[in-house]
Specification:
Elements lengths: L1 E6 L1 H14 L4 H8 L5 H8 L6 H11 L9 E13 L6 E5 L1
Antiparallel strand pairs: 1-2, 2-3
Length: about 100
């Protein structure tokens, strides 16, 4: 069993909002820079309802002039456990997470 950290979506959303404001950008500014038709995705990110794609994290890091690690908030209290074992009958590896 491996214990892996998870992303704190609410904390990451707050961090995106703080970095956006620190950069002097409005949601509309960020929307235009990302080429989005609407600001809905940005509001979802800031509320922790959704996360940016990896591509968008890279763009945000460039816009905010910070490493991606400064945008993503890791939740060390909630861990995901992943285990793997070999199924004797099928000789295949089986993975499970909890």
């Amino acid at each position: 069993m491996f214990t892996l950290p998870t992303i704190d979506t609410v904390g990451t959303g707050i961090r995106i909002m703080v970095l956006r404001k620190k950069a002097g950008l409005s949601v509309k500014d960020l929307q235009m820079m990302l080429g989005f038709a609407t600001p809905n995705a940005i509001y979802k990110w800031q509320n922790g309802a959704a996360m940016p794609t990896l591509d968008n994290f890279i763009v945000l890091a460039t816009i905010f002039n910070v490493p991606i690690d400064d945008i993503i908030v890791i939740d060390n209290k909630t861990n995901m456990q992943i285990g793997a074992w070999k199924n004797v009958d099928s000789d295949k590896w089986v993975c499970a997470r909890s």
